[in-house]
Amino acid sequence: MQQAGVNVVALGIFSWDRIQPAEDEWNFDWLDRIIAMLGRADISVDLTSATASAPLWLYEKYPQMLPRDKFGHAINAGARQSWSASSPICREYALELCRRLAERYGGNPTVTAWHVGNEYGWNNRHDYSDEALRAFRAWCEHKYGSVEKLNEAWCSSFWSQEVRSFQEVLMPRHMGADAMVNPAQQLDFERFSNDALLDCYRAERDAIAAICPDKPITTSFMISTDQCAIDYAQWGAEVDFVSNDHYFHEGESPLDELLCSDSLVSSIAHRQPWYLMEHSTSSVQWKPVNARKCHGELLRDALAHVAMGADAINFFQWRQSRGGAEALHSAMLPHADADTRLFRQVCETGEALKGLSEVAGTTVVPSRVGILFDVQSQWSTEIPTLPTTKLDHWHEVRDWYRSFLAAGLRADVVAHEWEQYDLLVLPTLFMLSDSAVRRLERYVHGGGAIVVGYATGIVNDAFQVGLGGYPGAGDGLLRTMLGVSGEEFNILGPDETAQSVELSDGSISRLWQTCLTRIADDAEMLATYTEAGALEWELSGMPAIVAHQYGSGRTWYIGCDVRREYATRLICDQLAPQIGIELGDPRVVTIDHASDVHVFHCVFNRSGTDVELSPSDDPVLLARGSRGQGAVTLPRQRSLDYAKLALNLG
After folding, report:
1. For position 542, what pLDDT does the model report?
2. Which of 112, 245, 377, 620 is the most buried (most CB within 10 A)?
3. 380 and 484 in one domain?
4. 564 belongs to an annotated ligand binding site
5. Same domain, residue pair 539 and 610
6. Tens digits of per-residue pLDDT, 99-110?
7. Does the residue 141 lie in any domain?
8. In which domain, by residue range, is 597 found?
9. What is the pLDDT of residue 639?
């Protein structure tokens, strides 16, 4: 570990059974030895509550603590998180474990932080047990206060679903192969499920903090662009520092995906430094195809996380397991031991991170452009009774993020606090509350600019459609801002005669077209539907892209899905000039960090070719690449490309 530069270890994540092998038996000897050994090596410990996996004896004694799926089947023990977040029995035993750990190690100087649970919701995000039903009913009563308000919010008169007491409230369990769940009920169940897990975290956190109040407490989030199932913007306020687990994405844009995911993490951390709790040195073992990292991607990914605000770079796991479900998951020390290419790269990464010590504690300089992400809109796009099940809010955020990079501009993904941005993009925010629309109206009227994507603002936060035309959110206020009104959605599928619709500016829509039948007199049509596809679907001449001046600000409504290339063209031709921002070189991405004394420019090559830069006279730390006379060459993306330039402001 010292050779690799390790200075912190997350310890005991799945060790409940080892610590408490029987109900009245406790074994801390092994943990004492490990913590003492790490302390002698000047390696600090992020000690976990060990509650992510309960011991088998506890499940055998109390099988009622197992969660159930929507079909009523028990989620059996044998993996992680096979416990119900609503189980008072599990809560009682977990809190006793937390208290014993805090009493034993709270004063140990090697233990510098606490790690509660792990990846909440990984295996128990949804629980349909009777225990959870009782908790859901109590949650609904607390939220609505009366069944009349619940019935109104849920539109319960539809299909004779009105309840007369909270004891009649149901969860969206399986109702038959062809049944359709009430979407408002489903959304509230998602909210309840998030809150139930958060209550588990809070209870364990508070039990530890009551005994050990002077050490920070966190838990690991799971944010990448293929997962963000929990309301982490809410959870972020409950941790002392934000931690995230991010895993390598294969494909043609792994760097873009990493930057996008980290940008959301940074927003949840309010742009303060955060902690990368887990990522992999190479391949994982849980995908259909598990590609390894090569050409410097191990070092590149670690440094990219630093560039996006991470002050700690942790890998899962230290030594590759001999057995178990993650035996073939990569580690810092592989099966082939230390004399390996992989371990040498781990050591190289440790050395590179030591050289970036000045960056620690600095904050990422924000962009002038924000892309709004809202997990509840993501939940709404997962409801099956939509015009199409192919909507994905998070993936639309990712695609817009990549479009800005392709235009030579890095945007920020934002979960809150977006009024400071000059331009805000709302990609497939299917659900927008009335209060959110009023907030947007104040922003635009005061001079802000927004881009509203297709399938945005269709329902409010109770999944009720705004009347009078699409998008109807905010009782028509969003339509007024945009200067448009639509009547229907035209949805394309693979079995249709015309599987795409062309726009007058040459772009192509392949999924969704909002049928705009009215636009304001002062609105500007930037593109209409045309050619054979538009003729087939009776869309010829209908507005597709509309710009509108509202108050002191400006709006753009994109009424259809468009390829990233079109979004990049719109950024270059309209959006960047509107806010007066100069676009950079799209082959690289630059992330700036600032302190009171210095600015650090972190530069990555995101292209498929080598890029030659001519830095100023500021000192350059080149992690990989080549130096020439007055120039630095960053290799193509499959190789690592990182430079840090420090400009003294003092």
Report:
1. 98
2. 377
3. yes
4. no
5. no
6. 999 999 999 999
7. no
8. 588-648
9. 38
Looking at 329, 359, 389, the residue that finishes a domain is 359
Query: 562-566 long-range contacts, Cβ below 8 Å, gap at least 24?
Result: 562/503, 562/507, 562/508, 562/509, 563/507, 563/508, 564/399, 564/402, 564/403, 564/406, 565/403, 565/406, 565/507, 566/505, 566/507
Instruction: From 187, 202, 88, 192, select the one nearest 141 (Cα to Cα).
Output: 192
Among residues 257, 278, 297, 502, the one annotated as catalytic is 278
d(CA 464, CA 472): 10
For the cut 60, the answer to whether the pLDDT of residue 647 exceeds it is no
Please state, for a pLDDT cut of 90, what percent of the chain lies above it: 85
User: Active-site residue 536, yes or no?
Assistant: no
Residue 632 confidence (pLDDT) = 82
Q: What percent of the chain has pLDDT over 70?
A: 96
CB 180 within 8 A of CB 385: yes
Is 521 in the same domain as 601?
Answer: no
- Give CA angle at 375 (179, 233), nearest 5°: 145
SS (H, E, C) 122-150: CCCCCCCCHHHHHHHHHHHHHHHCCHHHH
| Cβ 290 vs Cβ 329: under 8 Å | no
The answer to whether the annotation marks 80 as part of a ligand binding site is yes
Residue corresponding to tokens 């399986």: 174
User: Which of 562, 579, 596 delimits the end of a domain?
Assistant: 579
pLDDT at residue number 620: 65
CATH number of the domain within which 251 lies: 3.20.20.80
DSSP 3-state of 249: coil
122 is in an annotated binding site: no
With respect to residue 169, please indicate whether it lies within any of the assigned structural domains.
no
pLDDT tens digits along 192-209: 999 999 999 999 999 999
Look at residue 309 in the predicted model and tell me its pLDDT.
96
Identify the bridge partners of residue 516 per DSSP, sorted by sequence position. Answer: 486
Q: Is the same domain home to 558 and 614?
A: no
Residues 483 and 596 in one domain: no
Q: How many domains does the chain have?
A: 3
Whether 523 is in a domain gets the answer yes
By CB neighbour count within 10 A (0-12 exposed, 13-18 middle, 19+ buried), where does 596 fall?
exposed
pLDDT band at residue 619, thresholds of 50, 70 and 90? low
Give the three-class secondary structure for 642: strand
b/e sequence 119-150, b meaning 16+ C-beta within 10 Å: bbbbebbbbbbebbbebbbebbbeebeebeeb
List pLDDT tens digits, range 248-295: 777 778 999 999 999 999 999 999 999 999 999 999 999 899 999 988
CATH code where residue 507 lies: 3.40.50.880
What pLDDT is recorded for position 253? Answer: 87
Q: Is 119 a catalytic residue?
A: yes
User: What average pLDDT does the structure give for the chain?
Assistant: 93
Phi, psi for 352 (deg, rounded to 5): -65, -40
Query: Is the confidence at residue 616, as pLDDT, over 80?
Result: no
First to last CA, the chain: 37
Gap between the Cα atoms of 213 and 210, Å rounded? 6
161 located within any domain = no
CB contact at 8 A, 531 and 506: no
